[in-house]
């Protein structure tokens, strides 16, 4: 590891003043430094995304915002499904892809585009049944736009994984910053021109700019550099089997996240669903930050598998301290934070937000265990942890929401994460290699 406090080569694209501040604040070793850069990217996206919708609600009427938001949300969900979780696949296999790097990136792009187009076309066919108020999407021109945007957003997600896999996290920050800023500028232009589709146009225009800039850097600079410098290991076996298993696991986790609002809506009604969504948006931030650290763990361990054990311990300790501080902060400021949205949000959402903050502590271990399993290609463990989490969260929520109100959802998440974390501590030999020499040993037959 480098001894100086330097940033990766890609970080030179960040403006000088910001780069100087990051250089002073970030840890020395790439393992933690790159994880922090990815966390910065996520926070930038979250904050500027919130700013975008604040402007949208001021510049457009509620009906326009509602329809555009529903359209964007549908396209984003479809692209998430269509990209087959290949973003995580790229994070796992690009670090040691060597001369196969460009081919692997382009193959994942092609698969993500193809399946996203199929998902978008299937959704449009079902619009009259599942979302009749979005029937304006059935206009031929609008339909083409929707399908194209869905495929483009899949590439947008995949390029994050590719940039992370070739150790260019600074450019993940750059592209998300470009996307957010251009989106706001185009939103203002659309509002000035009184365009009904101004929100959609702003997202599409910003997406085009971000894709062009990020992929120019990725394919012209980052990939050639990586092909020269990365270890050129033999192509790992069973890539398709790994991708299928990892995708299955991601679908279970996505179901746990995506179905919770529906459970709240069905059990408690639309008003409580709104209270839930605000607390949920804040409470998920620590989860997102741990995932960023896990991506850095995967990249560095895939480059040097012998370091998986010490890297895991290092990231676990660092993330546990960070999550403890974050949980304490959220618990203290939860009422004040939610009061900005109104007294009802504070009254009904404070306990839920505090419980979600607490659940981030055991989730640190659960999330990192999945990432370690990805490095070791423990396919059953990847699926099993996420399937168990989904079943526990949704099952407990179904029982507890009618009895405890919104707090029931928080109790469900905290209980599920604690049970899984306890199991992983007791059975740590199943996922954590005891010695660096064993860190990339092929899984036994029973794990395949």
UniProtKB/TrEMBL annotation:
Q: What is the annotated localization of this protein?
A: Cell membrane
Topological type in the membrane: Multi-pass membrane protein
- UniProt xrefs under InterPro entries: Poly_Biosynth_Transport
Record keywords = Cell membrane, Membrane, Transmembrane, Transmembrane helix
* Record's keyword annotation contains Membrane: yes
Q: Where are the transmembrane segments?
A: 37-60, 66-86, 106-131, 137-156, 177-195, 201-219, 239-260, 272-299, 320-341, 353-372, 379-400, 406-426
What is this protein's name?
Polysaccharide biosynthesis protein C-terminal domain-containing protein
Q: What organism, scientifically named, is this protein from?
A: Streptomyces fuscus
């Amino acid at each position: 590891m480098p001894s100086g406090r330097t940033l990766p080569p890609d970080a030179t694209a960040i403006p000088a003043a910001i780069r100087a501040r990051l250089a002073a604040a970030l840890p020395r070793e790439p393992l933690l430094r790159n994880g922090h850069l990815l966390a910065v990217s996520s926070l930038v996206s979250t904050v500027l995304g919130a700013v975008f919708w604040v402007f949208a609600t001021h510049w457009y009427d509620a009906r326009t915002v509602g329809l555009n938001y529903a359209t964007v949300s549908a396209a984003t969900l479809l692209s998430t499904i269509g990209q087959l979780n290949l973003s995580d696949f790229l994070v796992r296999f690009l670090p040691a892809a060597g001369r196969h790097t460009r081919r692997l990136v382009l193959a994942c792009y092609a698969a993500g585009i193809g399946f996203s187009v199929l998902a978008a076309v299937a959704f449009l066919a079902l619009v009259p049944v599942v979302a009749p108020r979005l029937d304006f999407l059935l206009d031929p021109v609008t339909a083409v736009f929707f399908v194209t945007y869905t495929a483009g957003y899949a590439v947008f997600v995949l390029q994050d994984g590719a940039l992370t896999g070739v150790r260019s996290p600074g450019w993940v920050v750059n592209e998300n910053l470009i996307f957010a800023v251009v989106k706001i500028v185009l939103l203002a232009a659309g509002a000035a021109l009184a365009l009904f589709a101004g929100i959609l146009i702003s997202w599409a225009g910003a997406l085009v700019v971000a894709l062009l800039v990020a992929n120019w850097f990725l394919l012209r600079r980052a990939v050639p550099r990586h092909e020269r410098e990365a270890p050129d290991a033999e192509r790992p076996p069973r890539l398709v089997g790994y991708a299928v298993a990892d995708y299955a696991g991601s679908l279970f986790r996505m179901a746990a996240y995506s179905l919770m609002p529906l459970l709240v809506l069905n059990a408690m009604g639309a008003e409580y669903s709104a209270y839930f969504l605000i607390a949920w948006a804040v409470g998920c931030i620590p989860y997102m930050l741990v995932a960023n650290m896990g991506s850095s763990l995967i990249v560095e361990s895939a480059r040097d598998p012998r370091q998986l054990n010490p890297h895991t311990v290092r990231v676990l300790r660092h993330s546990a301290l960070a999550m403890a501080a974050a949980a304490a902060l959220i618990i203290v400021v939860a009422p004040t934070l939610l009061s900005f949205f109104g007294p009802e949000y504070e009254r009904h959402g404070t306990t839920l937000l505090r419980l979600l903050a607490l659940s981030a502590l055991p989730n640190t271990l659960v999330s990192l265990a999945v990432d370690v399993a990805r490095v070791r290609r423990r396919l059953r463990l990847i699926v099993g942890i996420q399937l168990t989490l989904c079943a526990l969260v949704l099952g407990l929520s179904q029982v507890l929401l009618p009895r405890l109100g919104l707090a029931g959802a928080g109790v469900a998440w905290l209980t599920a994460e604690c049970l899984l974390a306890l199991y992983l501590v007791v059975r740590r030999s199943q996922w954590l290699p005891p010695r660096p020499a064993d860190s990339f040993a092929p899984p036994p037959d029973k794990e395949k």
